[in-house]
UniProtKB/TrEMBL annotation, chains A, D:
Signal peptide: none annotated. It comes from Goekera deserti. This is Phosphoribosylformylglycinamidine synthase subunit PurS. It is found in: Cytoplasm. It is an enzyme of class 6 (ligase). GO terms for molecular function: ATP binding; phosphoribosylformylglycinamidine synthase activity. Part of the FGAM synthase complex composed of 1 PurL, 1 PurQ and 2 PurS subunits. Its main location: cytoplasm. Pfam families: PurS. Part of the phosphoribosylformylglycinamidine synthase complex involved in the purines biosynthetic pathway. Catalyzes the ATP-dependent conversion of formylglycinamide ribonucleotide (FGAR) and glutamine to yield formylglycinamidine ribonucleotide (FGAM) and glutamate. The FGAM synthase complex is composed of three subunits. PurQ produces an ammonia molecule by converting glutamine to glutamate. PurL transfers the ammonia molecule to FGAR to form FGAM in an ATP-dependent manner. The lineage of its organism: Bacteria, Bacillati, Actinomycetota, Actinomycetes, Geodermatophilales. InterPro entries: PurS, PurS-like_sf. Keywords: ATP-binding, Cytoplasm, Ligase, Nucleotide-binding, Purine biosynthesis. GO terms for cellular component: cytoplasm. GO terms for biological process: 'de novo' IMP biosynthetic process.
UniProtKB/TrEMBL annotation, chain C:
The keyword GTP-binding does not apply. PANTHER family: PHOSPHORIBOSYLFORMYLGLYCINAMIDINE SYNTHASE SUBUNIT PURQ. It comes from Goekera deserti. The lineage of its organism: Bacteria, Bacillati, Actinomycetota, Actinomycetes, Geodermatophilales. GO terms for cellular component: cytoplasm. InterPro entries: Class_I_gatase-like (IPR029062), PRibForGlyAmidine_synth_PurQ (IPR010075). The active site is at C85 (nucleophile), H194, E196. GO terms for molecular function: ATP binding; glutaminase activity; phosphoribosylformylglycinamidine synthase activity. This is Phosphoribosylformylglycinamidine synthase subunit PurQ. Part of the FGAM synthase complex composed of 1 PurL, 1 PurQ and 2 PurS subunits. Its EC number is 6.3.5.3, 3.5.1.2.
Length: 79, 605, 223, 79
């Protein structure tokens, strides 16, 4: 069954307290080489038949992400 | 070839971008400025030019415009507050209206500070974050007074319970109130949840916080002491909530410039929890002479208010402000409403100790300026002076409107509404009342709130008032209730406000507490509509007269205007909070029957 | 009897846990996450709250705090350790207790007074109860759903490692109604419900929670 | 600066109420073609210099994911 992956990330200008907390922990745990962490969501969808790109884009942009603060990256099976 | 976008706050001189400095402003009187887009009227812009004796710089214009906005200056509502100021003095009032929150003496050397504030519009745009940052903002107001925040309450109003948009905003707002308050470790001890079509496009989110301190711990927002340092601490500054000033950007950014800044702020309750603990340690070690939180209007507000309340001037070096986004311009840094930030005035000898406390709590802290002699607020950016203003004119010199008022034309018709004429009508009315979601079980909401944290919650949901213990040895306690009824206020705002006050007062009294003080949040439509302005004035007058009759001071509050969908205003909605004290909290009285065979008495008329 | 209560950045119920220790007759000792040493305490409580905002995963970042290395070492040597709510999450993340705590099945934070059945009355923290005793204490969490692979759950139940189970309804969808578990030696206990919020008539739904704190006092004496 | 992406997904045997809730919403909104949704986390790390694959794997497997319930996919810049 075709798998579609959608990554939802905070818009760059929106603050990301979760990523900040992970970055802080990495510093304390001795990984100073990591200079930035942003945390988003990762959805794996299984779709029946041939995925309809337009429909999936709409799902990603309006349901999986909050367009006020988040951006979406859609990975269709053909990608 | 891509052109470099010109930053806002710069102007083109002979093709070379040039920072809009005070010096430049003095020699370029004719430069056109987007004051109207920033919400300033021509006469207000003219007044700024007169105050400064020149045109404002871009940064100054941004500061004045946001500080003179309705939200920050209360320019439409302020004239009506004299009703509160005229109330007889109360012995219990330690700090009255004007500071971040009022402070009340509750006995045994304890002082309590409490206040309710709205976050209506942001909660409609982004329900979770809007509600969350509403809680965060009111908690910082309480903290700023020197108190440990000890509980929150929330008063919520939505459109019809079965409307699709209610299904969008309600769960997010409830989760946001809970998510932020729970993570801060503040018990939620009560609130309201009401539905009415008038709130469909404009839900109300009013959050209350209460804090406790010893009398000697009260802190004020003022910058005193020549040479004392200005310390900014908490979160980094980003491009949050500067939607309004983005016109400054659009004016100079070309199509390839950065996108319009978001108007949405994201809350970080963890950082706020660290701020609370760091501040309380800083207060305990007596490390600050003045403190202010950064809320609406961010640094513009904090610097101008601190300087204006102090005796001297203030200088800030804006390049030292820690940024989350290095593309921010000076005006944007001054406007940013990034959450979880505070500004303190610290004696030079105590700065190191102050910074050490912040390090212990992982709170970023930076010296950004100092208290100067003279009476100017000056701000430098990239080595140039971009702000040089009398701070009082920014913080308190805003315009004062006497808006026209008229009694709503439909009021006689509404008030004349006849009683039900038949038993069938009565039956229908009765069914409507008993099946209203307003009367439904609220536990879907209240179960999402932590009521137990800190271990001092004596009464909370579903009681009529929240009751807290404030001293484990003496058993002293306080009670709070938050009530509002927009339908009563729509029918008669004067009496409606008094009914709300009376309800909150009764709820506190029946818990066994002695009512001491009042806070309020006035949620109304557009002040430019004379009928709304009349409703507002009547509600304020009604509340003040009610407080006079009950012998209570109004310690503070908040006004939220422009609550409307299109031209249709919400019902006028004064939300009233009453605080009471119990000398022995073990003698609180819960609601409801407790045991078989008890006698039922009806009091009153 | 000195019982340490660890404060992590974002701990919230540390004041409550310390109060419960005092009401039980112990001395509460405040411990700070960034220190290395346990100040010679006789037992440790990891309190509830949102350490590091519960960002990443509840308890994940706190489990890597410097003081946790000492807690893990001493726990292996028999030091009684109690993790309440966020503290339980920290203990699972630190590997002292099996399983993991995940987002509640209904996806909401839920706070209510919860009935529990005590299944093990012989751990360091539950000896004041009797097996099968029903108690009521508050539960409040957003990520309290206890999960583990089915085989692991079978093993835990087989070894009698379930200390308390939800009764009259499961508040968060935890596997097999598990509310709390113990280490093999019965010295480390973690549970999502909050016994420290049920220690006074004035503020709690009951005083049923006090037993956790009186238990450890006697277990330390007899140890 | 090199970017490293880490996707964290729940192990298949661990139930995923968030994914279930999304799936339910998709059904109600008229997207019956999506037959399964799993929700995970998506981290974007920026690393100074050349990323050390072993160190990043350790970060991903021990901090970003909880191996008791989660699996990890690491995408190094060369991927
Ligand atoms: N938004 C809310 N936040 C916190 N508590 C609430 C909220 N809404 C209602 N409550 C609480 O739920 C209980 C029942 O509310 P309500 O039905 O309005 O009570 P009443 O009709 O007695 O005024 C009260 O204790 C009230 O404080």
């Amino acid at each position: 069954m075709p798998r579609v992956v959608v990554d939802v990330v905070l818009k760059p200008e929106i603050s990301d307290p979760q990523g900040q907390a992970v970055l802080g922990a990495l510093g304390r745990l001795g990984h100073p080489g990591v200079t930035s962490v942003r945390q988003g969501k990762h959805f794996v969808l299984e779709v029946e038949g041939t995925p309809d790109a337009a429909e999936l884009r709409q799902i990603a942009e309006t349901l999986l992400a909050n367009p006020v603060i988040e951006d979406v990256e859609l990975h269709l099976p053909s990608d | 070839m891509t052109a470099h976008p010109t930053s806002p706050g710069t102007s083109q001189v002979g093709g070379v971008p040039q920072l809009d400095t005070v010096e430049l402003a003095a020699t370029t009187a004719d430069t056109e400025q987007p004051y109207a887009e920033l919400g300033l009227r021509p006469e207000e812009y003219q007044e700024i030019r007169e105050i400064l004796g020149r045109r404002p710089t871009t940064a100054e214009l941004a500061m004045y415009s946001v500080m003179w906005s309705e939200h920050c200056s209360y320019k439409s509502s302020r004239v009506h507050f004299r009703h509160f100021a005229d109330l007889p003095a109360s012995d219990a009032l330690l700090v009255g209206i004007g500071e971040n929150a009022g402070v009340v003496d509750v006995g045994d050397g304890y002082a309590v500070t409490f206040k309710v504030e709205s976050h209506n519009h942001p909660s409609y745009v982004e329900p979770y974050q809007g509600a969350a940052t509403g809680v965060g903002g009111i908690v910082r107001d309480i903290l700023t007074m020197g108190a440990r925040p000890v509980a929150v309450m929330d008063s919520l109003r939505f459109g019809a319970a079965d409307a699709p948009d209610t299904a969008r905003v309600l769960p997010g707002i409830v989760a946001g109130v809970g998510g932020y308050g729970n993570c801060l470790g503040l018990p939620n001890i009560g609130g309201e949840l009401l539905f009415d079509d008038c709130y469909l496009g404009n839900p109300l989110v009013n959050a209350l916080c209460v804090g406790v301190m010893r009398h000697g711990d009260i802190r004020l927002a003022k910058a005193e002491g020549l040479g004392n340092k200005v310390v900014l601490f908490g979160a980094r500054t980003g491009g949050d909530g500067i939607g309004g000033v983005s016109v400054l950007a659009s004016e100079t950014f070309d199509a390839e410039g950065p996108a319009k800044r978001p108007a949405v702020q994201v809350g970080d309750p963890f950082t706020e929890k660290l701020l609370i603990e760091a501040c309380l340690e800083i207060f305990a070690a007596d490390l600050v002479t003045g403190i202010q939180d950064l809320g609406g209007a961010g640094l513009s507000c904090a610097t101008s208010e601190l300087a204006s309340a102090g005796t001297g001037g203030m200088h800030v070096d804006l390049d030292t402000v820690p940024l989350r986004d290095s593309t921010l311009t000076a005006a944007e840094i001054l406007m940013s409403e990034s959450q979880e930030r505070m500004c303190a005035i610290v004696e030079p000898a105590k700065v190191e100790e102050f910074l050490a406390v912040c390090r212990k709590w992982d709170v970023l802290a930076t010296v950004i300026g100092e208290v100067t002699d003279g009476d100017r607020l000056t701000i430098d950016w990239h080595g140039e002076r971009i702000v040089d203003v009398p701070p009082r004119t920014v913080a308190h010199g805003g315009p004062l409107y006497h808006r026209p008022m008229t009694r709503p034309a439909d009021l006689d018709g509404l008030q004349a509404d006849a009683p039900p004429s038949s038993s069938a009508d009565l039956r229908a009315d009765w069914l409507a009342v008993v099946s209203s979601p307003d009367g439904a079980d609220k536990s879907w909401v209240t179960e999402q709130y932590d009521r137990y944290v800190r271990g001092n919650t004596v009464l909370a949901q579903p009681e009529d008032a929240g009751v807290l213990r404030i001293d484990e040895q003496t058993h002293r306690g306080i009670a709070l209730s938050l009530d509002g009824n927009g339908r009563f206020a729509r029918l008669d705002p004067y009496t409606g406000a008094q009914l709300n006050l009376a309800e909150a007062y009764r709820n506190v009294a029946v818990s066994g507490a002695r009512p001491l003080a009042v806070t309020n949040c006035m949620n109304f439509g557009s002040p430019e509509n004379p009928e709304v302005m009349w409703q507002f004035a009547e509600a304020v007058r009604g509340l003040a007269d009610g407080c006079r009759a009950l012998g209570l001071p109004v310690t503070g509050g908040n006004v939220s205007l422009y609550n409307q969908t299109g031209d249709t205003a919400i019902n006028p909605t004064p939300v009233i909070g009453v605080l009471g004290v119990l000398d022995d909290v073990r003698r609180r009285v819960p609601t409801g029957w407790r045991a078989d065979g008890e006698t039922v008495l009806l009091l009153g008329e | 009897m000195r019982i340490g209560v660890i404060t992590f950045p974002g701990s919230l119920d540390d004041v409550d846990a310390a109060r419960a220790v005092r009401l039980a007759g112990g001395e509460a000792v405040a411990l700070w996450h960034a220190d290395d040493d346990l100040s010679g305490v006789d037992a440790v409580v990891l309190p509830g709250g949102f350490s590091y905002g519960d960002y990443l995963r509840a308890g994940a970042i706190a489990a890597r705090a410097p003081l946790m290395r000492s807690v893990v070492d001493r726990a292996h040597a028999g030091l009684p350790v109690l993790g309440i709510c966020n503290g339980f999450q920290v203990l699972c993340e630190a590997g002292l207790l099996p399983g993991a705590l995940t987002r509640n099945g209904h996806l909401h934070f839920r706070n209510r007074d919860q009935a529990l059945l005590v299944e093990r009355a012989d751990t360091a923290w539950t000896s004041a109860y009797t097996t099968g005793q029903r108690i009521v204490v508050p539960v409040k969490n957003g990520e309290g759903r206890y999960v583990a692979a089915p085989a692991e759950l079978d093993r835990l139940e087989g070894e009698g490692r379930v200390v308390v189970r939800y009764a009259d309804g499961n508040p968060n969808g935890s596997s097999r109604d598990i509310a709390g578990v113990t280490s093999a030696d019965g010295r480390v206990v973690g549970l999502m419900p909050h016994p420290e919020h049920a220690v006074e008539d004035l503020t709690g739904p009951s005083v049923d929670g006090l037993g956790f704190f009186t238990s450890v006092l006697s277990s330390v004496v007899t140890a």
